[in-house]
């Protein structure tokens, strides 16, 4: 029976190889996964994955009828010990990465063959299936998902995700000053610090590194030594092994690769083969900083009990380990009416036009994100959640400032220039109101944590990655980036 149903479609079935990308983790047009209510449908011809809603549009566009349906059930395992080991990679939910949930789960997969447009189902395993179909199923399930392949391609030639170029100072002129470095018991030549130490590869000087935002780290003596001497290359003591070392170029302002590091170390009497790793690398330190993100209470309004918000336009974004800045920017952009109109209100047209190239088309990816943020399908209140109430003003100065920012459109605009300028701008005169701002805490713009606050529906809302809530004390004075909207004047 199964064979007879599939015969008209066998010729379109393909067996994916290592050169094919199989999109089996989430729908290419939205964010449904095999764990979603209706699972995921993988085309057995082009290997694109779709949710139940979008797979029908794909069928009518291509006439591809045969799909592998993936449905995964996730169950919490009770009474099991959750690993408390420290993360070793900049990743979330992966081995060696951050265990954000603190819970352990087991998964059960129910797979089947589905024939569109009637959604005929053939449960698996089914020994009566043609060999080509069985081989295709096996390869789709076995091969790495497209996202994993793309990440591996992006990280090729890198170490722990950080691309490092060969330094332009590889042919370094080292001083013949007789300095010999012992294999251990190092300390800063200025302050005596015994951790976060950097060896200058020109003169053999040992100094402490930069001070971190939390007061730990060093006393900046390695930087000061470079500013005095302009000797560019340093290597972090305690990270040196035959496989990897942290080498930094002050002149190039980046972590670099020194192809002649063994020779440069030998100049100071160091045999790289005799060294063992005793200190944290810069990636490991960044992981430590990510673990302490929760300490930055001010910009996250941690001191108040925030009321969570749900529904269209109130959908959070997961932090992928270092994506908080992108999350904040995307939330702000997709609260600009023009973005909503272009990518959300017209998403069906975009999906239909570019569906065959969905994973690579920028318009589809923007529309997919807009759909995720504005459809409301990924922001549902728990069954016991209560409707948020408007905060009652307490007549203090901060509330007054909030009111001015929030109700600027209600204030009188008497400027004579308003009438003159009106014709030049499509959305009003040169009067503005604050509608969003992005806040940052950290040592630099490339480190730390970002959140955004957006004025929506007459109230301030905080978007802190996947957490969306009514803001009680929007920290406008700590913002990194402000977004203003011109006030329309009738």
Automatic annotation (TrEMBL):
Which GO annotations describe the biological process of this protein?
Answer: protein deubiquitination; proteolysis
- Gene Ontology terms, MF aspect: cysteine-type deubiquitinase activity; zinc ion binding
Q: What EC class does the entry list?
A: hydrolase
Alphabetically ordered keywords of this record: Hydrolase, Metal-binding, Protease, Repeat, Thiol protease, Ubl conjugation pathway, Zinc, Zinc-finger
Transmembrane stretches, by residue range?
Answer: none
> Where does the USP domain lie?
1-487
Would the keyword Repeat be found if you checked this record's keyword annotation? yes
Q: Which residues form the UBP-type domain?
A: 164-272
PROSITE patterns for this protein: USP_1, USP_2, USP_3, ZF_UBP
Q: What is its EC number?
A: 3.4.19.12
Record's keyword annotation contains Flavoprotein: no
Domain of life the protein comes from: Eukaryota
The protein's annotated catalytic reaction(s) are: Thiol-dependent hydrolysis of ester, thioester, amide, peptide and isopeptide bonds formed by the C-terminal Gly of ubiquitin (a 76-residue protein attached to proteins as an intracellular targeting signal)
Q: Which family does it belong to?
A: Belongs to the peptidase C19 family.
Protein name per the record = Ubiquitin carboxyl-terminal hydrolase
What is the originating organism of this protein?
Trichonephila inaurata madagascariensis
Q: Gene for this protein? A: USP5
